[in-house]
Design brief:
Elements lengths: L1 E11 L4 E12 L2 E11 L9 E10 L4 E7 L2 E7 L14
Parallel strand pairs: 3-5
Antiparallel strand pairs: 1-4, 2-3, 5-6
Length: about 90
Protein backbone atom coordinates (compact mmCIF):
# COMPACT_ATOMS: atom_id res chain seq x y z
CA UNK A 1 0.00 0.00 0.00
CA UNK A 2 1.16 3.52 -0.80
CA UNK A 3 0.17 6.49 1.37
CA UNK A 4 -0.86 9.74 -0.35
CA UNK A 5 -0.49 13.08 1.44
CA UNK A 6 -1.31 16.57 0.14
CA UNK A 7 0.72 19.58 1.28
CA UNK A 8 -1.60 22.58 1.36
CA UNK A 9 1.15 24.95 2.52
CA UNK A 10 4.87 24.67 3.15
CA UNK A 11 4.95 27.71 5.44
CA UNK A 12 1.68 28.83 6.98
CA UNK A 13 1.23 31.00 10.03
CA UNK A 14 -0.19 29.14 13.02
CA UNK A 15 -2.89 31.81 13.24
CA UNK A 16 -4.40 30.74 9.89
CA UNK A 17 -7.54 28.61 10.25
CA UNK A 18 -7.73 25.63 7.85
CA UNK A 19 -11.21 24.12 7.42
CA UNK A 20 -13.20 21.84 5.14
CA UNK A 21 -10.16 19.85 4.01
CA UNK A 22 -11.07 17.23 1.43
CA UNK A 23 -8.86 14.92 -0.53
CA UNK A 24 -9.32 11.90 -2.75
CA UNK A 25 -7.02 9.60 -4.68
CA UNK A 26 -7.90 7.23 -7.51
CA UNK A 27 -5.83 4.87 -9.60
CA UNK A 28 -6.76 4.69 -13.27
CA UNK A 29 -4.46 2.66 -15.47
CA UNK A 30 -0.97 3.98 -14.77
CA UNK A 31 -2.19 7.27 -13.30
CA UNK A 32 -2.57 8.08 -9.62
CA UNK A 33 -4.96 11.06 -9.64
CA UNK A 34 -5.21 13.23 -6.53
CA UNK A 35 -7.81 15.96 -5.99
CA UNK A 36 -8.10 18.22 -2.97
CA UNK A 37 -9.76 21.32 -1.62
CA UNK A 38 -9.46 23.41 1.51
CA UNK A 39 -10.71 26.69 2.92
CA UNK A 40 -8.59 29.01 4.97
CA UNK A 41 -9.07 32.28 6.76
CA UNK A 42 -6.26 34.46 7.95
CA UNK A 43 -6.49 37.25 10.48
CA UNK A 44 -5.01 40.63 9.51
CA UNK A 45 -2.23 40.15 12.05
CA UNK A 46 -0.58 36.74 11.87
CA UNK A 47 1.99 34.97 13.97
CA UNK A 48 5.47 34.72 12.49
CA UNK A 49 5.79 30.94 12.83
CA UNK A 50 6.06 28.69 9.80
CA UNK A 51 4.11 25.42 9.68
CA UNK A 52 3.60 22.67 7.13
CA UNK A 53 -0.11 22.04 6.54
CA UNK A 54 -0.80 18.52 5.23
CA UNK A 55 -3.77 16.23 4.78
CA UNK A 56 -3.68 12.45 4.46
CA UNK A 57 -5.69 11.29 1.43
CA UNK A 58 -5.52 7.59 2.15
CA UNK A 59 -3.66 4.71 0.57
CA UNK A 60 -3.65 3.04 -2.83
CA UNK A 61 -2.44 -0.33 -4.10
CA UNK A 62 -0.09 0.00 -7.06
CA UNK A 63 1.09 -2.77 -9.36
CA UNK A 64 4.75 -2.87 -10.32
CA UNK A 65 5.73 -0.75 -13.32
CA UNK A 66 5.56 2.83 -14.50
CA UNK A 67 3.04 5.28 -13.03
CA UNK A 68 2.30 9.01 -13.14
CA UNK A 69 1.21 11.01 -10.10
CA UNK A 70 -1.27 13.68 -11.24
CA UNK A 71 -2.23 16.53 -8.91
CA UNK A 72 -4.00 19.46 -10.57
CA UNK A 73 -1.56 20.84 -13.13
CA UNK A 74 1.38 18.87 -11.71
CA UNK A 75 2.61 15.49 -12.91
CA UNK A 76 5.51 13.32 -11.83
CA UNK A 77 6.49 9.92 -13.22
CA UNK A 78 7.80 7.11 -11.03
CA UNK A 79 8.33 3.36 -11.10
CA UNK A 80 7.10 0.76 -8.60
CA UNK A 81 8.90 -0.61 -6.72
CA UNK A 82 10.15 2.83 -5.63
CA UNK A 83 13.12 3.10 -3.30
CA UNK A 84 13.78 6.84 -3.27
CA UNK A 85 12.48 10.08 -1.84
CA UNK A 86 8.73 10.78 -1.84
CA UNK A 87 7.24 11.41 -5.28
CA UNK A 88 5.81 14.94 -5.50
CA UNK A 89 3.65 16.69 -8.09
CA UNK A 90 3.09 20.40 -7.51
CA UNK A 91 -0.38 21.75 -8.25
CA UNK A 92 0.12 25.31 -9.45
CA UNK A 93 -3.62 26.08 -9.56
CA UNK A 94 -3.27 27.70 -6.13
Amino acid sequence: MTAVTVVFSECASGSVQWTDQACSVEVSGGEVVVTSSVRRSAPRTQTSDCNWVTWDCGTVELDGGDHTLVYGTGEESFTVPHDGPPVCARNTNG
